[in-house]
Amino acid sequence: MVNKPAPDATRRSEKSRRAIYEAALSLVGEVGYPRTTVEGIAARAGVGKQTIYRWWSSKADVLLEAFLDLAEQAAQAAGHEPYSLPDTGDLAADLKAVLRATVDELLDPRFEAPSRALAAEGLVNEQLGREFVTKLLEPQLQLYVHRLRAAQDTGAVRRDVDPRIALELFVSPLAQRWLQRTGPISYDYTDTLVEYALHGLAPR
Amino acid sequence: MVNKPAPDATRRSEKSRRAIYEAALSLVGEVGYPRTTVEGIAARAGVGKQTIYRWWSSKADVLLEAFLDLAEQAAQAAGHEPYSLPDTGDLAADLKAVLRATVDELLDPRFEAPSRALAAEGLVNEQLGREFVTKLLEPQLQLYVHRLRAAQDTGAVRRDVDPRIALELFVSPLAQRWLQRTGPISYDYTDTLVEYALHGLAPR
């Protein structure tokens, strides 16, 4: 998807690339996905349309990479690697820390509007929705799968639990409150989700 | 919001009302919320625009009532009252039954397209989103709150659990899979959610 630039063009390209990401995210947050165009992104980023088409084939491609970049920055700001969850041996503490960082990200205005615009489009545009789930959301969910598998190895999670479903007990409630505004989100809230998910609602 | 019709107009009104609901739901599913108009709903329902404005003040109002009516029909089709959850004394069985009925509803084509269109709009149109949550979604979630409170009274759920958060452990995963297409939905899936939520992921 991305052609490697010639060495002497790298610095300038990197700057353009970042300007294009920022333009794409701000534009989709302001006017929504259907009215975001490659021309509009180019104009806002101060580059030619051809610069965008040299690197990406469509606005969906630009946005996908812009979100991947944003998620990477958010993970680094939260002090953890973008491609794994912390494993201190204390599953509850690790999940709470990651979900608290997610709360921060969801409440970040740079993230809010573009993410809503994209999620809204993904609900009704099945192809776009599936592409973003496959390339952006599911890889993030798989980090929880790996952390829960490690917890199964140490006995902190039952062996008969399917990690891919289990993670939804704390990830999906936060996602729904944020997406549909069904309730406030806070550290207390996500901490509670982790406690309920690990220990269940029934008496022990 | 709805003026009571004169007695001799009741039968005709009821027929028009249902035609308007159906027109509103099918239209929003086909063209999305922004392009749905009161004029378009009237034309499809075969009534005058003034007939709609006599009963409702906006397209949002028409759609809200159309969805309330659809939810009522779905509850009756599933064999339970629309305004309460079953209470057989077996919490897991009751929750599984209600979630299985919800799976049926989510997979019903009459429900699918209009619900997606409305949810998508609610993500980016905060006023509409909040109105539909307050009037449509939250009352449904409160049915789970009441059922979980009854379970606290019989000792099936711990006293220190907040039922409004607890219900999200099984409701939100299903909502997210359906909304964002993050995974398949089935009776097995929702049964598993109930088991995990009640008994937790950690060894007992």
UniProtKB/TrEMBL annotation, chains A, B:
Task: Identify this protein by name.
Answer: AcrR family transcriptional regulator
**Where does the HTH tetR-type domain lie?**
14-74
Record bears the keyword Transcription regulation: yes
Molecular function via GO: DNA-binding transcription factor activity; transcription cis-regulatory region binding
The portions of this protein that span the membrane are none
Query: What UniProt keywords are attached to this protein's entry?
Result: DNA-binding, Transcription, Transcription regulation
Write down the species. Answer: Streptomyces echinatus
The ranges the UniProt entry gives for DNA binding are: 37-56
Annotated PROSITE patterns? HTH_TETR_2 (PS50977)
